[in-house]
């Protein structure tokens, strides 16, 4: 797998660009620029993709960012993968119709794998990204929280990933919640495991990336892309620097 993609991330809550610390809604940092302005800056810096998250809907359901999604696609030319609160097939169709290149499915993909596998077949593997948001359990296993990371599933990450790989999954996003928003570096052990377990699935690393060296490290272990959020918003890494790594 030679292609590598930078996915600058915009998480939206109450219309504002925010970042949560380790998925905790009570530990939120808000940023001054509106989401469309940030998206424009990323496009101008050379990004071709954007990762857009509806944090309000991730917890409560009912994706709310269709108007913003339409604006971003129309005004920036970015390809957008987006999710949060997507609960039914009609939601997937609506988000794709609004201009998304891929719909991200997280909690539902953990709770109802057969349903989501059927959508991968119906909409096509290039239109769906399954998000495996995970944290280390006390026994060393990888726990899969749901509902905006507020409740834990009993589903095993390795088993679920293998199920989706057999179902034709092409794109998987895996966030180490323990590193999300911490700027502590990506969990290379996790991504090494994932890329070896499902070599035909394009794995996107998420959580902890700080600088260009982190981008290089996840690429080296076989990831097909990396989500960059706080590092870009707080100027630890510029979008231009990140895109330069993408083009190596």
TrEMBL record:
Alphabetical list of Pfam families matching this protein: His_biosynth
Keywords from the UniProt entry: Amino-acid biosynthesis, Cytoplasm, Histidine biosynthesis, Isomerase
Compartments, as annotated in UniProt: Cytoplasm
Recorded metabolic or biological pathway in which this protein acts: Amino-acid biosynthesis; L-histidine biosynthesis; L-histidine from 5-phospho-alpha-D-ribose 1-diphosphate: step 4/9
Active site per the UniProt annotation: 11, 133
Isomerase as UniProt keyword: yes
The EC number(s) this enzyme carries: 5.3.1.16
An example Gene Ontology molecular-function term: 1-(5-phosphoribosyl)-5-[(5-phosphoribosylamino)methylideneamino]imidazole-4-carboxamide isomerase activity
Catalytic activity: 1-(5-phospho-beta-D-ribosyl)-5-[(5-phospho-beta-D-ribosylamino)methylideneamino]imidazole-4-carboxamide = 5-[(5-phospho-1-deoxy-D-ribulos-1-ylimino)methylamino]-1-(5-phospho-beta-D-ribosyl)imidazole-4-carboxamide
PANTHER family, sorted: 1-(5-PHOSPHORIBOSYL)-5-[(5-PHOSPHORIBOSYLAMINO)METHYLIDENEAMINO] IMIDAZOLE-4-CARBOXAMIDE ISOMERASE (PTHR43090:SF2)
Family statement drawn from the similarity comment of this UniProt entry: Belongs to the HisA/HisF family.
Protein name: 1-(5-phosphoribosyl)-5-[(5-phosphoribosylamino)methylideneamino] imidazole-4-carboxamide isomerase
Species this protein is from: Ornithinimicrobium cryptoxanthini
């Amino acid at each position: 797998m030679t292609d590598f993609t930078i996915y600058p991330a915009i998480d939206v809550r109450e219309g504002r660009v925010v970042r949560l610390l380790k998925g905790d809604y009570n530990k939120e940092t808000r940023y001054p620029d509106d989401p469309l302005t940030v998206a424009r800056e990323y496009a101008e810096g050379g990004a071709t993709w954007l990762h857009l998250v509806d944090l309000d809907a991730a917890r409560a359901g009912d994706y709310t960012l269709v108007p913003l999604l339409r604006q971003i696609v129309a005004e920036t030319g970015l390809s957008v993968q987006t999710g949060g609160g997507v609960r039914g097939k009609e939601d997937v169709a609506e988000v794709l119709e609004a201009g998304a290149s891929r719909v991200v499915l997280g909690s539902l993909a953990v709770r109802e794998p057969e349903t989501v596998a059927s959508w991968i077949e119906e909409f096509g593997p290039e239109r769906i990204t399954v998000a495996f948001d995970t944290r280390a359990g006390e026994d060393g296993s990888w726990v899969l929280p749901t509902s905006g990371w507020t409740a834990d599933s009993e589903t095993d990450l390795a088993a679920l990933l293998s199920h989706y790989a057999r179902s034709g999954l092409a794109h998987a996003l895996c966030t180490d919640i323990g590193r999300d928003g911490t700027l502590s570096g990506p969990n290379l052990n996790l991504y090494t495991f994932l890329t070896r377990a499902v070599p035909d699935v394009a794995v996107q690393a998420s959580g902890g990336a700080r600088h260009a060296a982190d981008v290089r490290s996840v690429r080296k272990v076989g990831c097909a892309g990396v989500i960059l959020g706080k590092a870009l918003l707080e100027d630890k890494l510029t979008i231009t620097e990140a895109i330069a790594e993408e083009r190596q």
